[in-house]
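Task card 7
Instruction: Convert sequence to structure tokens.
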Amino acid sequence: MSRPKKWEAEPGYESLVEVLRMAHDQAAYGKGKLRHANEGEAFSDQHIMQIAHHHGPGHATGQAEKKARESNRLPPKAAVEELLGAIVYSAAAVIAINAIEKLSYIKESVSGSD
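Output:
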């Protein structure tokens, strides 16, 4: 799979976009893909998301916290890798929260249509 073209950033936010891109690449092409994904499996179907949906976003935020804490005792390169993992877990929490909100909206819509 080829990597997407460079992401566009709002002027002054280039460094943020670069870090988010690094987290994406870790999940899509690096450690995340090697350890957690089956061939061709979408992020939304991987264990990280299955667990977040089953146990709620707290699991993902807990994993992000653990990785952030662990980064403090690592050499710089390893610390960056750990923090990128924390960003991916934080994204999983956001995706899980959004899914919960969407499900709540659907349930409200269905129950309100009596």
